[in-house]
Amino acid sequence: MTPQTLQGYYMGGHVLSVSTSTQFTVIGPDHPVTAIVGEDTVLPCHLSPRMSAENMEVRWFRSEFTRFVHLYQHGKDEYEQQMPEYHERTELLKAGIMDGNVALRIVNVRPSDEGQYRCFVQDGVFHEEALLELKVEASGSPPQISVEGYQDGGIRMVCQLAGWYPEPEVLWRDRSGQLLSSSTKTKSKDGRGLFEIKISEPPGVSHTPHPLLLLSLPEKSAIWLFLHFVTGPGHPVTAIVGEDTVLPCHLSPRMSAENMEVRWFRSEFTSIVHLYQHGKDQYGNQMPDYRGRTELLKAGITDGDGSLEIFYHRRSDEGQYYCFVQDGSFYEEALLELKVAALGASPLISVTSHQDGGIRVVCQSSGWYPEPKVLWRDLSGQELPSLSEAKSLGDSGLFETENSIIIKERSNQNLSCWIRNTVLNQEKESAVYIAGQLPAKPTSLNHLQQKENKT
Known about the structure:
InterPro entries: BTN3A2-like_Ig-C, Ig-like_dom, Ig-like_dom_sf, Ig-like_fold, Ig_sub, Ig_sub2, Ig_V-set, IgSF_BTN/MOG. It comes from Chrysemys picta bellii. Keywords: Immunoglobulin domain, Membrane, Signal, Transmembrane, Transmembrane helix. The chain is mainly beta. The chain folds into 4 domains: 24-137, Immunoglobulin-like (Sandwich), CATH 2.60.40.10; 144-226, Immunoglobulin-like; 230-341, Immunoglobulins (Immunoglobulin-like, Sandwich), CATH 2.60.40; 348-454, Immunoglobulins (Immunoglobulin-like). A hairpin with a 5-residue loop joins strand 16 and strand 17. The radius of gyration is 39 Å and the shape is elongated.
């Protein structure tokens, strides 16, 4: 650094010429700048105190002063001796140059851009510089896990990933979190300098259900990959009585199940809901309740999809199902739950008799599952107390309900009977309008006007 200089030549008390260099400090970020491969990034740099750098030299370089990343000199950019790898990839951001901002943009960041940069600024004989660090990262494609043959009586899993930078750490752990040594690991760099890694599962892990893979980058959070060989939905599947639904199930990693055994069963392995074996469906030992009502969806079987469709659902279909897949001596299964629901008929409201100085109004409905919730409401939506309630299972296994209320007021009344299925979150409602005086005879319904509303 050269101190501020000032030289003057006087003649007759007048200054003939003055040469000055302004003193300043060059400031960069106090932490590394992180850039993503393929994207653009800005290396911040500015003068302090703030002043115009329009007529100064601004030089960005790496280890050698003469091999520059970008050079601004004599009021314009100079590219003649620029490092070839930065050709047409740099830009000095001049929007703030009058305010001392000399930040550099690098476009289409590469792994080779990582490292230290110097922001050098010179005004006359005075110069200063700042040192900053650029870190480059790339999160490549998700790990691809595949099966590469049999080994030691089990299958040999291999994980491959590409497009990562810096080199990620890839580890196998067992279900308890214990670190396992990998049998083989190979790594290389592609044309862009990004890492490609192939790591195989440790010997013997294929005999253990659910091996785990841990993937992490330096100074980054780990990514856990749980290798459930057969996976189902993580929540219950809901089916409507009388309609069709699909029970999802697939292999992980994705592989063809065309030549495997896919068995769907309930509580007992031999109580078969559906069986696919030797490349075709087998119906000889299928449970009678499911005959003609199941189909293994083979459109995705080469991609590991073993989903089962059940037609025209019944109340008895509710419960747990096992999706079992076997390939040679290796097998796995997933457990899933099926919930069955039915939305019954709209409530029917009727007047049955005089009772306790009023009239007894009854609400009836059938075809509900599970047991529905029944409420009476007035015109304002306020809940009214019921006189009695009876619920029973009909021959179809669906609920029938009867709920009654006593109306005593001798004025116009608006009532509604509201029935809700709590599984489907759907309801049906019927309303009745009672006009004027209470009827002289309970059988006379001329004063009743009834309407239905389905939500």
